[in-house]
Amino acid sequence: MKIFIGNLSHGLNQQSILGLFARYGSVESVELSVESVAGRSSRFAFVIMPDSAQAIQAIVGLNQASLNGRILVVNEARPVADGGSGPQHHRFIRH
Questions:
Q1: What is the structure's pLDDT at 41?
Q2: Please, which residues bridge with residue 67 across strands?
Q3: Do β-strands 73-76 and 2-6 pair in parallel, antiparallel, or remain unpaired?
Q4: How many domains does the chain divide into?
Q5: pTM assigned to the model
């Protein structure tokens, strides 16, 4: 299951996100958005967890949790509608 994580602080890296989700189960990958201009982490990421039950536990456990003074938004990722605008000034780093 692909999970969206929003409202992340700029200081987080892939390893810290991986560690956060690994408490709930196996993590297949972490995609951290990086601002193309500044080269620093943005405020959202995606995590893929192969076990849906573990992914749901992670969503329930982490949504609205406080991390580094920010309240996380964690939910199942939704596909972008055709013709929609996406993060055009971002690139992703995969784990």
A1: 52
A2: 70
A3: antiparallel
A4: 1
A5: 0.79
Strand-by-strand arrangement of the 73-76 sheet: 73-76, 2-6, 41-48, 29-35, 90-94
Give domain status of residue 12, yes or no: yes
Would 31 be classed as within a structural domain?
A: yes
Residue 3, C-beta contacts closer than 8 angstroms, at least 6 positions apart = 21, 46, 47, 48, 49, 55, 58, 59, 74, 75, 76, 77
Residue-wise pLDDT for 39-82, tens only, equals 555 689 999 999 999 999 999 999 999 999 999 999 999 887 65
Cα gap 64→94, rounded to integer Å: 24
**Residue 67 contacts residue 20 (beta carbons within 8 Å):** yes
Q: CATH number of the domain that 65 lies in?
A: 3.30.70.330
Q: Which domain holds residue 30?
A: 2-78
